[in-house]
Design goal:
- With 425 residues, the chain is mainly α.
- The chain has helices spanning 2-28, 31-37, 42-55, 60-84, 88-95, 98-129, 134-150, 154-165, 171-177, 182-190, 198-211, 214-226, 234-263, 272-276, 280-283, 287-318, 332-349, 355-382, 384-387, 396-422.
- It has a single domain, classed as Amino acid/polyamine transporter I, CATH 1.20.1740.10.
- α2 (31-37) runs antiparallel to α12, α6 (98-129) packs across α17 and α8 (154-165) crosses α16.
- It is 78% helix and 0% strand.
- It is globular, with a radius of gyration of 22 Å.
- It has 20 helices and no strands.
């Protein structure tokens, strides 16, 4: 009997271990994938499409560089949350002085308000495709989103918005239907074809801002903590964080290639109708409708989630009540901040001007603020007093440092050129 039982035990144990590992990964999977793909919202799609329309395949190598940095940052944020059990705002409050903590939270809030503007611009652009004025659609959307969140029924609407945003999944298919020049795609992906122009620099900063945005880092850390993912499960969450970042930028590449193949070289996009042309080889006369559905879903989803993330971060940093289930009397700061962000976002979009230009310019602003967040993340992940053996190692330290230097340097160069232009330089 021992000869029969022994082989069975030795073969079953590894199998059970593999099954356990698989289910542990499924349990951990989610925060990284959801957070990274949240970047492909209204601002993301508009910026990637505009980059392809204006510069063709040239921005592809830039996306590759951004992806390396994105993977590095997402992995660090997830590791911080898993090994400390705390969100990013709480860690900054505990590990830095009051002034630096206030500065960090202020940067988060400013960046996220910019994103809220982007999302309402996306809502307005979507409805303009269907002949509805922004002056009607945006106020109604702002009130509807506020009511959905405040009365606690947003979780049901969230599923509908998420389903609508899946329309953007058609971009990888549209890319092949657009018959791009694959030799140019490969060449521009692996060899830099940068231009020494302010317009190309502006698009580069916008691509950084819409990909590595502070909101994503806040959400990732919070989601890891909420799921109870600890050091033991971190190796599975690491796969989730890295794969999520890569998958997100694969979609970004598809948007750039699809747009470049159809309308590349025509200049920056002026409207949602122009952006929808990239889907025409796939959807034909339904391209504008398909694009509008995706834009509306992604924008409405983020228009609620982004201001909520700001409210959670500020309330967490200050140490006050934070919950959508509470009343204004019980959580005045949390719900008040959420309301103010919606009002600002909607109000800015109602100012006369080109909505698509507003979206891209907002992403440029995000790209300027992003390095501030990354410095805090890098310093926290480097601290052995906080992370112990899980702190950044010999590889993560230089890669993280180079990521911050590259992104920060790019933003500083753009700011310097812009300021010089004001004075005729």
């Amino acid at each position: 009997m021992s000869q029969i039982t022994e082989p069975t035990t030795t073969t079953t144990a590894p199998a059970r271990s593999r099954y356990r590992s698989f289910f542990l990964y499924l349990a951990a999977a989610g925060p990284g994938l959801i957070a990274a793909n949240a970047g492909n919202d209204a601002g993301g799609v508009a910026t990637y499409a505009s980059a392809g329309a204006e510069f063709g395949y040239r921005p592809l190598f830039f996306i590759v560089i951004i992806t390396i940095g994105y993977v590095c940052i997402q992995e660090m944020v997830a590791r911080l949350a898993a090994h400390t059990g705390k969100g990013l705002a709480a860690l900054i409050r505990e590990q830095f002085s009051l002034r630096l903590s206030a500065f960090a939270v202020f940067a988060f809030a400013i960046a996220n308000v910019g994103l809220v503007v982007t999302e309402f611009a996306g809502i307005g652009s979507a409805f303009e495709l269907w002949g509805v004025s922004r002056y009607l659609s945006v106020p109604i959307a702002a009130v509807a989103i506020w009511l959905l969140v405040i009365v606690g029924s947003y979780r049901y609407a969230e599923r509908v918005f998420l389903l609508l945003s899946l329309a953007f999944v058609t971009y990888p298919i549209a890319m092949f239907f657009g018959h791009p020049n694959w030799s140019q795609v490969v060449s521009n992906t692996f060899i830099p074809h940068f231009l020494g122009s302010k317009a190309f620099l502006l698009v580069g900063v916008a691509l950084i801002g819409t990909t590595i945005t502070p909101y994503i880092q806040l959400y990732t850390a919070g989601a890891v903590v909420d799921r109870g993912i600890g050091p033991e499960e971190y190796k599975y969450e690491r796969v989730d964080a890295v794969s999520g970042a890569i998958l997100s930028d694969v979609i970004s590449v598809c948007i750039i290639v699809a747009t470049a193949a159809v309308i590349g070289g025509t200049g920056p996009l002026a409207s949602a109708a122009d952006a929808a042309k990239a889907l025409e080889p796939l959807a034909g006369q339904w391209a504008a409708t398909l694009f509008g559905i995706g834009l509306l879903g992604a924008s409405a989803l983020a228009a609620a989630v982004v201001p909520l993330s700001t409210s959670y971060a500020v309330a967490e940093a200050v140490g006050v009540e934070r919950s959508v289930s509470k009343s204004f009397r019980e959580a005045p700061l949390f719900l008040g901040l959420f309301t103010v962000q919606l009002l600002i976002g909607a109000a800015v979009v109602l100012v006369p001007g080109n909505l698509f230009t507003l979206i891209v310019n907002t992403q440029v602003f995000e790209g300027i603020v992003t390095p501030i967040t990354l410095v805090f993340v890098l310093v926290l992940a480097n601290r052995r007093s906080l992370m112990g053996a899980a702190a950044n190692g010999r590889l993560a330290r230089p890669v993280g440092f180079l990521t911050v230097v590259f992104i920060g340097g790019f933003a500083l160069v753009f700011v310097a050129i812009t300021v010089a232009g004001w004075f005729g330089g």
